Amino acid sequence: MKKILAVFDGYKLSESTLSYAIEITKQNNSHLTGIFLDAFFYHSYNLSKILRTSSNPDMTIQELDKLDEQQRGKSAFEFEKACQNAGISFSIHRDHSVPLLELQYESMFADLIIINEREKFTRLDLHEPTDFIKDLLSSLHCPVIVVPENYKKINKIVFLYDGEPSSLYAIKMFSYLFGNWHDVPIEVVTIIEKDIIDPQLPGTILITDFLRLRFSDFSSTLLKGNAEEKIMSHLLASGENQLVVLGAYKRSGFSRWLRRSMADTLMIGLDLPLFIAHH
Fold it and tell me: How many angstroms separate the CA atoms of 99 and 35, rounded?
């Protein structure tokens, strides 16, 4: 049984993370662990404002801490109730240390992490993708699915493939995790940025054999032009609820067009979940 981690901010439980996590857990008969990153320094209130304005800041902070704990407990209860209703195997971890470090450590013992693209674990307003998401994606020890704000049932899988080890590694990890996801069609998308008379998938015979052994329904699409522009326009034009699979997130990775800016661009420009895996 595979172990999936769903990451939550207890102050604002992500409904889309919960829905995607339950769908994927049921689809693959896995165990779902809800990770609630209750950092000791993270509050729902503005601490500096209270220190400036409250006549009795110690009492005010104590009361607000109780309310925070109640809200975090309510979120954990909602997760537990949803899992029970879905009939899935689940557990709950409430981590009280530094969120990024806690999640990096937990990822060593997990098969997959699911997290909302807007999670930040701070009261500050940040540009998306947030620094927390960027740091997380470049440092995890297992694949991650970054989900959008709104849940949509997945009805298609798109592999972004350029023939480089990083993109094939992501496809491998997806196949290892979701080998029984047979009822969803798969499209392999490759960008041809040079003028080639007879363009083909890189490693045509090998990649075809590789996919045929793992998936019963797949097709390939070759696009010519700028990778970032063509991928965005192709995915937007599809109109389907796709899960996009891509490789190296680090800029120093192997692929020329599946680099950090590509993943960031897709998170900003698309309302789709992204499966990201790198060595």
Answer: 10
**Burial of 217 from C-beta contacts in 10 A (0-12 / 13-18 / 19+):** exposed
* Amino acid making up residue 63: E
E strands in the chain: 3-8, 31-37, 89-95, 112-116, 144-147, 156-160, 186-192, 218-224, 242-246, 274-276
CB 117 within 8 A of CB 128: yes
Question: Model-level pTM?
Answer: 0.87
Contacts of 81 (CB under 8 A, 6+ apart): none
Chosen CATH of 156-276 out of 3.40.50.620, 3.40.50.720, 3.40.470.10, 3.40.1160.10:
3.40.50.620
| Interval 139-163: pLDDT, tens | 889 999 999 999 999 999 999 998 8
Three-state DSSP at 94 gives: strand
